[in-house]
Amino acid sequence: MATSFLSRVLFWPRWFFRQLTSMRTALFLLLLLAFAAIPGSVYPQRSADPNGVRLFFDNQPELAKVLDSIQIFDVYTSVWFSSIYILLFVSLIGCVVPRTKIHYHALRAKPVKTPAKLDRMPIYRQFEAFEPYLDAAQAVLKKSRIRFTRSGNSISAEKGYLKETGNLVFHYSLIGVLIAVGVGGGLSFSGQRVLVEGETFVNNLASYDSFSPGPFFNEENLQPFDLKLEDFEVVYDLTNLNNRGQPIDFIATVTALGKTSEIKVNSPLAAPGANIYLTGNGFAPVITVRDGEGNIAYSGPVVFLPQDSNMTSLGVIKVPDANPEQLGFISFFYPTAEELESGAYTSIYPDPFVPLLTMNLYSGDLGLDNGVPKNVFALDTSNLKEVASRNAENPPLQLEPGDVVDLPDNLGSVSFDGLLRFASLDVAYNPGGIWVLGFALLALGSLALSLMIPRRRIWFRFADGKIEAAALARNDDPGLEDFLQRLVLEINKEIEKK
Amino acid sequence: MNQVVLNEPLSQISLLFVSGAMAFIAIALVVFSFQLAKLSSDQSVDSSKLSNLEKLGFWALGLGTLVLTVGVVMRGIAAGRVPWANMYEFSISAALLILMVYLTALKIKDIRYIATFISGFVLVILFAAVSIFYVEVKTLMPALDSYWLVIHVVVAILASSFFAIAAGFHIAYLVKNSGFGKKVMNLFPDLDQLERLAYRFNIVGFVLWSFTLIAGAIWAERAWHRYWGWDTKEVWTFIIWVLYAGYLHAMATRGWRGSKAAWLGVIAFSAVIFNFTIVNLFFKGLHVYSGL
Ligand code: HEM
């Protein structure tokens, strides 16, 4: 009747918290977490595979919309997934903090009193001995650094406190991992940049092709440095017949921070405040376009995107400065070209042994002037005149390196001046990584301690000229009997010494 | 850069050895099954002593392990690197490690009674390896060309081996508990013992799996510019880890020990197998190294 208002108000929250921190709930939440992680491996995720998500939307727009509304394409940042692991961690804290208190007291307290009936213990022995036996036992326990307390005619000892310590440290480390992941992710950034041989990248926001910062990222965190791609070499397997055309190594030679270094797959370059990774490669044919009036309207390397393992590559050239008409090219590059029966080409080897460019030419208003940003890798041909292609009056243009070809209808000329490679670079920074690793290793170490160290209680009692020895383990412990046996042997030795 | 010269004839000889090992292991399987059948029909025999039939079985299993070792080592030499860079190689290495872990554990503890399960399971792995997963030796793609391949993958295989043996105990537990095949199951240790053995193997597996997870994250930071990105394979490594963590909690929860925990162990191990087969072959992701 005397329940205060406060305790009545707090009844349900308390009840809820007690439920939440029960082992059963932890188990349930763990299983739920495992289950909830599955959809992220079945459906493409925006974070890992944005292209896959786009494709899904194209192919099944209706279904995609429904799935998107329940965050199926962002599983690991979704409300439901987050709720599960946050609940799990609340439960973990609620579980571990009281246990820490108990363990702290246990560490300072004496081992529990010797129970009255030792013969109920899983390991129990009884043998004749003299009173000084307990003194010897005490000496042995001391020597083995096992905690004990003697009261009257009995000794109570306990070892393996490190098991519980390990368990607690393990759970705290998991909290550490979670915090490091969160904070690190917030401060992190990653930016992508395509760099053609000879080009230089300056580390500021404007230089990136794409950039994804964490929520706490600040532009001032970008440290200034230049990086020039001097040379990019791709090594293919020529030794093993079955393996021909398989890339063996990608080596980007760069100058940065006053020295020349190599960036390879699996070995990024450490720059100030970021690591620079090599993530992609391709060809960048150097192309010059002269317009109908004979002026150079475009000149430079064009990044071509690889389409297959033999590096058939697709590039788009937009020439808005051409007069009298703007020009657009959709072009294929074949490093080692071979003509198919249909007259089309394909590439049969990824290294440039028989390089060939083919180009479809369009003329008209490219639509670049209205200020809407356009994808540089796509050309909207709907309002353009198809001047040269397999469907048009004129055949597609074909160029080998060094060739100059006149465009039909006096539109000008195009030349294939040289061939360069480009490297896709990823500049990434995550200050949390090292902390995550630290906590993860701490978790691993304490996990091993907690799982491998046995927690044991041992008792000796002297009465009526007999010694009773008993042992009890906290968990399953196949070595318990041996352990007691060894202790007894050592005590006997100790007695003989006297 | 290391320009490796592949040795295809040697890889063919390696395949012969792997197939030869299968023959020995098949003999072992037949002998062990026969032994079980015999013991169950004649309960008077003292099953704690090694019978001649069992001796024959373990000889065959030992020889199979030896021949398989030669096959796996040859495959490594033929490829000029560690023999676990695609599904075929991963399978034969896993089969070898399971046998080695089992035979070593046998020296420490009498776990003869799951010999039938172990030889059967290894035989299935090897059969899938040579008939479904087989690929000729290839050089590594640059992303795999790292010493982390050695560390991360070998520990993953070792962890899976421990999980596999634990799964054997779980299955024995569940069968015995269901009362099915009483005569045969009488030869197995009691339920408590089976549960404990499964737990022992699972905790070793779990520590190794935790290490695999960490090593994988370190490698991913090097190769894919982030230590964790929820790639399909990362997702499943995580799921497996969480499932086994669940199993460990179940073992500490009253009312969950026994057959519920055993079922969890079986489910967790199914996830290991699922990860290795279905996820490798059919799920899209960065870990495309099945070689198929
Ligand atoms: C992120 C969530 C969690 C994970 C990943 C996790 C993982 C683990 C693992 C791997 C173990 C076995 C290793 C050891 O004994 O030290 C363990 C043990 C244990 N966990 Fe957790 N845990 C989580 C949450 C919790 C929660 C919420 C509770 C409390 C309700 C809890 C209570 C315990 C206890 C009491 C043990 C010892 C079991 C024993 O005596 O064998 N854990 N946990």
How does this structure look, described?
The complex is a heterodimer of chains A (about 500) and B (about 290). Chain A has helices at about 5-10, 10-20, 25-35, 40, 50-60, 60-70, 80-110, 135-145, 160-185, 435-450, 480-495; strands at about 125-130, 145-150, 155-160, 190-195, 200, 210-215, 225-235, 245-255, 260-265, 270, 275-290, 295-300, 305, 315-320, 325-335, 335-340, 345, 355-365, 385-390, 395-400, 405, 410-430, 455-465, 465-475. With about 500 residues, chain A is an alpha+beta fold. Chain A has three domains: about 20-100, no CATH class; about 110-160 and about 455-495, Kinase associated domain 1, KA1 (TATA-Binding Protein, 2-Layer Sandwich); about 190-430, no CATH class. In chain A, a hairpin with a 2-residue loop joins strand 2 and strand 3. Chain A starts with a helix and ends with a helix. Chain B is built from nine helices and no strands. Helix content of chain B is about 75%, strand content about 0%. The mean pLDDT of chain B is about 90. Chain B folds into two domains: about 1-140, Four Helix Bundle (Hemerythrin (Met), subunit A) (Up-down Bundle); about 140-290, no CATH class. In chain B, helix 1 (about 10-40) runs antiparallel to helix 4 (about 115-135) and helix 5 (about 145-180) runs antiparallel to helix 7. At the A-B interface, helix 3, helix 4, strand 8, strand 11 and helix 10 of A face helix 7, helix 8 and helix 9 of B. Protoporphyrin IX containing FE sits at the interface of chains A and B.
Reconstruct the topology from this structure.
The complex is a heterodimer of chains A (498) and B (292).
Chain A (H helix, E strand, L loop, with lengths): L4 H5 L1 H10 L2 H15 L1 H4 L7 H10 L1 H9 L9 H30 L14 E6 L4 H11 L3 E5 L2 E6 L1 H27 L1 E8 L3 E3 L7 E4 L12 E11 L10 E10 L2 E6 L4 E3 L2 E18 L4 E6 L3 E2 L6 E7 L7 E8 L2 E3 L5 E3 L8 E8 L21 E4 L8 E3 L4 E4 L4 E18 L3 H20 L3 E8 L2 E8 L6 H18 L1
Chain B lengths: L7 H34 L10 H28 L7 H22 L6 H19 L13 H32 L3 H4 L5 H34 L7 H21 L6 H24 L10
Helix pairs in contact in B: 1-2, 1-4, 2-3, 3-4, 3-5, 5-7, 5-9, 7-8, 8-9
The structure holds protoporphyrin IX containing FE.
